[in-house]
Amino acid sequence: MHTSYHINLSAAEIEGATIAILPGDPARVETIAQTAPFTNARLLTQKREYCSWLAYMEGVPVLITSTGIGGPSLGIAVEELAMLGVKTMARVGTCGAIQGNIHVGDAIITSGAVRMEGASSHYAPIEYPAVAQHEVVQALIAGAKQAELTYHVGITCSTDTFYPGQERYDSYTKYVPRRFQGITEEWRRLHVLNYEMEAATLLTLASVMGLRAGCVCGVIVNRSRSEAISAEALRAGESAGVQCVTLGIANLIRQERE
Questions:
Q1: What is the pTM of this model?
Q2: Fold of 19-257
Q3: If phi over 0 gives left and psi between -120 and 50 gives alpha, with beta otherwise, what is residue 171?
Q4: Active site includes 235?
């Protein structure tokens, strides 16, 4: 029985699951797996940043596997999950909004991503677009509506760094290199909705590999108003993302049965 080196899973263990939900944080995996309408959730394995649970939705097995922070570790998870037979992947995470009309606790569903990270360039030239698969986007929109969330659909900026790449001045040095100074206002004027660190890698790799992928992030801060992330805001953003992705995956499963 072959076991994937990094995520530590075999094809037999995932019971034919073809759908995976990908949070970044290993601590969120159990929470998602235990969220209705999932049932019979159980831990499969944990190795490094990769924690995996298997849960069932209307009898269909679904993997929930954490990817850690950033594109390189997510790319490993995507590669190894695809080799096990997973065909649809939905990232769920948290993000900082940069448009003034977006609020903490809203959900942002990514239609496409700015590839301001490096991992995706190992799979396709920078001219290749990072776009979400339309069926996954529509399922996530339906999930947000069912959860009665305020949601936004649009472009996400994915970065390799949390501090300079997202033009944060609350770092150790308080300095942002010149090439990133003013970049948030530029993205704002280009109607980019938010910053996070994994969407562009996931969407590029999925398209290159012929898979389906999408991304939803709960908003935990609006960068046009504050840099501080409160515990309350974190809970609100995490909850929005989890509600949207679980209901969204349920919609996909129903569509496939019709």
A1: 0.97
A2: Rossmann fold (3.40.50)
A3: beta
A4: no
